[in-house]
Amino acid sequence: MGDHVRGAVPHAQVLVDLSAIRDNAAELRVRAGSAELMAVVKADGYGHGLVPAARAAQVGGATWLGTAVLAEALALRAAGIEGRLMAWLCAPGERWTDALAADVDVSAAAPWVVAEIADAARETGRIARLHLKIDTGLGRSGSTEADWPGLVDVALKAQAEGLVNVVGLWSHFAIADAPEHPANVAQVETFRSAVALAEARGVRPEVRHLANSAATLMSPHTHFDLVRTGLAVYGLSPLADVVSPGDVGLRPAMSVRARLALVKRVTAGQGVSYGHFHVTDRETNLALVPLGYADGVPRHGSSGDGGPGGPVLIGGKIRRVAGRVCMDQFVVDAGDDHLQAGDEVVLFGDGTSGEPTAQDWAQACRTISYEIVTRFAPRLPRTYIDREAAL
Ligand SMILES: *Cc1c(COP(=O)(O)O)cnc(C)c1O
């Protein structure tokens, strides 16, 4: 992969391997069995780029795309992305008419949402494709079990008026990254009874869906008709302590690279970066990496301040951030190694060339790989490798 960044390149960039996204989707498609595959592309495709990620996942076999907010779904349609597309996070006064005009599946967790969607359907003359969401235990979005019969009845009434079609019944796991946790059993049971109640009242759902990446990989009995995979599409493991991406046939798609901006020799006792949380213990070479928290490098990747410092590969060796990560830059203490300005720095990649992974950064920063990859790119150029994978 190193070859991709030799020659004239930006001082730092996010590389996205679209063939990895395509292949990961194909792998997940197989693992989903008879269920269809939704690639979740919210948050700018988990930082990989909304439209390229969506295209690559579709080429790999995703028949559905999912976003959190409606603006993301509308951006996909504006870019010419076809196929089933669902947006699930709404607030009062949402642009429902735009959603219906763009053929976006919508979700309701309360009667007032059904009412707003029905109004938009009346206004546009389009029948809304509606998914009803039950909270089976996450304690976040979704109707409570107590409110569920009322929600189902309101939706069926709108359906009888020709305003909506209730096409989906769905929910979301709280602890799917611990497959043996009893909460998972309870959530599946609650989901089954919510589906049974809705069906008994006359709902004929096209898709019942519950599984995220972790459940798709580890718990086939949760697949129902459709699985909603996000993180796994990008080649990262949602159960980092249990399986590595390679264990389940996935390959990380994102790599973050930079070139050293400066290398200099300093004496022992030199405090490094804001707060002097690292002090050189000998004469040494300090290397300056032109990436900081404004680019997405977590400040929790600092060293000397409770954490070990985020890992980077420079000159064939893993090294760690020395002292604080700043807004635009951080420093690495390279000892007597002969590094020079312009040398390649790999923050993370797929790990096959000895570089750290996004999971390694997550561990160093006491967070999850989801947060690592979604942070990068706003200021950095994103470079796509294997673009034809997304055509
Ligand atoms: C983000 C999200 C997903 C995808 O979760 P992963 O763990 O990344 O697979 C699925 N469903 C809902 C409702 C989500 O918000």
Automatic annotation (TrEMBL):
Give GO MF terms, alphabetically: alanine racemase activity; pyridoxal phosphate binding
> What InterPro entries does the database record attribute to this sequence?
Ala_racemase, Ala_racemase/Decarboxylase_C, Ala_racemase_C, Ala_racemase_N, Ala_racemase_pyridoxalP-BS, PLP-binding_barrel
Give the enzyme class.
isomerase
Among Gene3D superfamilies, the record links this protein to: Alanine racemase (3.20.20.10), Lyase, Ornithine Decarboxylase, Chain A, domain 1 (2.40.37.10)
Active site residues according to the UniProt entry: 42, 274
**Names of required cofactors:** pyridoxal 5'-phosphate
Q: What is this protein called?
A: Alanine racemase
Q: Which organism is it from?
A: Phytoactinopolyspora mesophila
Organism classification, top ranks?
Answer: Bacteria, Bacillati, Actinomycetota, Actinomycetes, Jiangellales
